[in-house]
Amino acid sequence: MRKRLYLLLPDVRRAKQVFKELLLSHIEERYIHVMAREGTHLAELPEATVLQKSDAMHGLWHGLVVGGATGAVAGTVVLLFPPTVIGVSLGVVLAMALMGAVMGVWVSGMIASDIPNKNLAPFLKPVEQGKILMIVDVPRAKVADVSRMIKRHHPEADMRGVDPTIPAFP
């Protein structure tokens, strides 16, 4: 299980230093993501993906639940009031629920990919002012050690908290 750390760094040079120290602390590169103002050259720093920048995962789960429930209700209506004389079975409810879930995931995923991640809202203004946001998913056992290391080596780093639950698929 991991916790997500948010670090605001003053520039790309310091972000590179913190990135290298995190790698030396055995934090894998796939668990480190960097967000910067549009047009900032990040060099070898791993840029945050759409999944980190947007509410896509949240939207996908909502689409799955709401679409599946809507499809199940529609299938139940078809089961209770069949449109023709042909017999309708419970398979219709399952098929409609599955189709609803697929449609819900597709539509809500497209919409949510354009909505900024609500967890990043406090960081958007500093990032637009030129700071670098580093998002690090750290194993629970190493959170205190990594935090101390960053504070000791980089007092200019603004540690803006720990997200207690990170998404299952960051």
Distance between the termini: 12 Å
Strand order of the largest sheet: 2-3-1-4
CATH architecture grouping of the largest domain: 2-Layer Sandwich
Alpha plus pi helix count:
6
Q: In percent, how much strand structure appears in the residues?
A: 15-25%
What are the low-pLDDT stretches, counting only 5+ consecutive residues below 50? none
| Overall tally of domains | 2
CATH top level label of the largest domain: Alpha Beta
- CATH topology name of the largest domain: Alpha-Beta Plaits
User: How many β strands by DSSP?
Assistant: 4
Following the backbone from N to C, one meets helices and strands in this order, namely EHEHHHHEHE
Percent of residues in helices comes to: 40-55%
User: Largest sheet, if any?
Assistant: 4 strands, antiparallel
Q: Rg from C-alpha positions?
A: 22 Å
Mean pLDDT value: 85
- Helix/strand-derived category reads alpha+beta
What multimeric state do the chains show? single chain
Query: What would you call the shape?
Result: elongated
